[in-house]
Amino acid sequence: MLTIKQITDNTEKVISGLEKKNFKNAKETIGKVMELNSERKKSQAKLDNNLAEVNATSKSIGMFMKNGQKDEAKRAKARVAELKEQNKGLEADMNAAAENMLQLLYAIPNVPYDLVPEGVGAEDNLVVRSSLRECKEGDTVGNWDTVVDNGDAKAPHWELARKYDLIDFDLGVKITGAGFPVYKGKGAQLQRALINFFLAEANKAGYTEIMPPTVVNQASGYGTGQLPDKEGQMYHCEVDDLYLIPTAEVPVTNIYRDVILDEKQLPIKNCAYTQCFRREAGSYGKDVRGLNRLHEFSKIEIVRIDTPQHSAESHREMLEHVESLLKKLELPYRILRLCGGDMSFTAAICYDFEVYSEAQKRWLEVSSVSNFDTYQANRLKCRYRTADKKIELCHTLNGSALALPRIVAALLENNQTPEGIRIPKALQPYTGFDMIS
What we know:
Layout: H1 4-9, H2 11-20, H3 26-66, H4 70-106, E1 126-130, H5 157-163, E2 167-168, H6 169-175, E3 182-183, H7 185-204, E4 208-210, E5 215-216, H8 218-224, E6 236-237, E7 242-244, H9 249-253, E8 259-262, E9 268-277, E10 296-306, H10 311-328, E11 333-337, E12 349-357, E13 362-371, H11 375-380, E14 382-385, E15 391-393, E16 395-403, H12 404-414, E17 416-417, E18 420-422, H13 428-431, E19 435-436
Helix pairs in contact: 3-4, 5-12
C-alpha cells in the first residue's frame, strides 16, 4: 500500500497517478486519508501530552504526601484519574482513525511510474518488441496488425489434444468441473517437461528454487495485495479461513513479511513451481475455450526482493529472462508495456508477454512481469538495513516464467505438421521425444 509519506509529500502526483489507473474519486479518497491521518496525529499528540502530565503528576503525589500536603496530594490524584479517563477516549479515537485510514489505504491501488502510458484498456497497451516484426514508437495493440497466415489451416489445440489423446477436458468436467483439464500420456509428459525446463532455466539464471504451500492465510493475502479480494477471484476455504493461491507470488513474497534484510543480501532471487487456482468469475465464450482460461493451472514464478536503487535493473533482467524462454521455445511473441487502465492493482509498471496462435488468430498472454516499488513491501513490512544502518522499504518484483496452459496451446497449434506435433529442440531433452504423433 502507499505510505503516508508518499501521500503527504507528493499529494498531487499521487492523485494524478491514481487517475492514470482510472481509480475513481482519487482526490476525495486521498483527501480522506490525509484527514484521518491528521485526526490520528492530533489524538496521538494529546495522548502523549496527557501521558507526560500523568507521569509528572504521579511523581508529585509522593512528594506532597512526604511534606504533609494532603490536599495537594488529593488534587493530584484526582487529576491523574481524570487524565487516565481522557486517555481511554483519546486512545480509542486514535485507533479508530488509524484503522479507518488503513482500510482506505488497502483499497487504493499503487501509483504507476511515469513510463506507464495513458489508456483505458488492452487496446491502449504499447507494443515495445516482437519476434514477428519491427515495432515503431507509439505502436499500440489497437493499431498493430498481427494476423499471420502461412497458408495452411491450423487446428486449435483442443482438437489436437483430442486427436493425439493429450488432454481430456470432458473428464475434467466429470471429476471437478469446467476449467480443470486432465492431462494424459504425452500431454502429461509435455507438462512435466515444461516445468522442469523452466525451473532449470531459472536455476541457471541464479534463482533459488522454493517449494511453498499452495494454501495461504489471510495475512499473506493482504501482504501481496490479493486481499481484499476485489474481484472475487480467490478460492476461499471458509472453515479454516485459508485461501488457495492464485500465483506462487503470494507464498514466496510472504517469506519476507515482517523481515529486516541486510542490504548485502539483495537482490534476493527466488523461483517456484506451483499449481495456481483462480475462480475466473464471469469468464465464458470462445476466448476461454480449451486451455485459454482455467481454474487450476501450473506456473513457474520468479520473485525478486531488491533495493530501490537496483530494482529497475532487476526488472530489465527478468524481462530478458522471460524473453529468452520464448526464443528457446521458438514461439512468436510480442512484449507489451501496459497502460494505466490495464495494469494490476498492485503494480507500478508491468510488461506482458503474449504468444501468437496461428490456429486461433489471436495473441495469448503467457506472462506478466511487474515491479511493485514499495507497495507490497509496505503491506508486508519487508525492509532492509542500509550500509549506514537506516531501515528502508524494499522493492518487490515478480513475473511468470512461465504459465503453462497457453504455452502448451501455442506449442500444439504452432508446431503441427502432417506427421504430428514437433517439439522444439530446447525442450526435447526434457520430453524424451521430438514429435507427438
